[in-house]
Amino acid sequence: MAAGLLAKAMGATHVVGVDICEPRLKFSKEINAVDDIIISDDQALAKIHDMTEKEGFEVTIDCSGSPLARHLALEGTRRWWGRCVMVGEGNTIEFDVSHLLIHRQITMYGSWVTSLGHMEDLVERLVRWELHPEVTVSHRFGLDEAEEAYRIADAGQSGKVCIVME
User: Fold this and answer.
1) How many whole angstroms separate alpha carbon 139 and alpha carbon 20?
2) What digits encode the pLDDT tens for the residues 116-161?
3) What count of other Cβ atoms lies within 10 Å of the Cβ of residue 110?
4) DSSP strand pairing (16-19 vs 59-62)
5) Collapsing DSSP states into helix, strand and coil, what is residue 79?
6) Which of 56, 59, 48, 47 is nearest to 11 (CA)?
7) Which residues are registered as beta bridge partners of 163?
8) Taking the CB of residue 6, how many other CB atoms lie within 10 A of it?
9) Long-range contacts: 95-102, Cβ < 8 Å, 24+?
10) Torsion sign (Cα): 39, 53, 12, 71
11) Dist. CA 159–CA 138, nearest whole Å
């Protein structure tokens, strides 16, 4: 959700969210983080090809860390000038390097944590762009409801879940 919001703020003209969870995708659309959604299933790549006239997306970003999602991001990246960014932590991925990267001439980036200077720049831009990341929060709980908050977050069916102390 945050990646979609930032992509739009940085000038992306069309953002597509791909996820295994339809409620989370619908929430992403409600908060204007994405323009279109694709349920990640065995037809997801075909849906990407339909949406892009078989070209793939110029930029793909995997925020999940899921091996299947990472592979789909690579497969869904446009040939020649496409870029694929891996942000999600954990797991591994196996793929035919020649087929997915070399022959298709795509660039793959990894991104983990940024510097304090870049974070300061981002905060300034959020203000300038009037972007409010808190819109990604779908559930708020008091400290005494922490168990329920963790249950909701663990289910993976929502936006961000926050425990607030008031």
Assistant:
1) 20
2) 888 899 889 999 999 998 999 999 999 999 999 999 999 989 999 9
3) 8
4) unpaired
5) coil
6) 59
7) 141
8) 19
9) 95/71, 100/74, 100/75, 101/74
10) positive
11) 5
Where do the domains of the chain lie, and which CATH numbers do they carry?
2-131 (3.40.50.720), 136-166 (no CATH)
The distance in angstroms from the start CA to the end CA of the chain is: 26
Q: Which two tokens stand for residue 5?
A: 């919001």
Q: For the whole model, what pTM was predicted?
A: 0.86
H-run or E-run covering 2: helix 2-9
Handedness of CA 138, 142, 143, 145 (dihedral sign): negative
Q: What would the two tokens of residue 74 be? A: 């690579």
> What is residue 5's DSSP assignment?
H
pLDDT tier for residue 14 given thresholds of 50, 70 and 90: very high
Tell me how far CA of residue 104 lies from CA of 76, 93, 96, 150, in angstroms.
11, 18, 11, 42
Q: How far is CA 133 from CA 18, 29, 32, 118, 152, in A?
A: 19, 14, 11, 17, 19
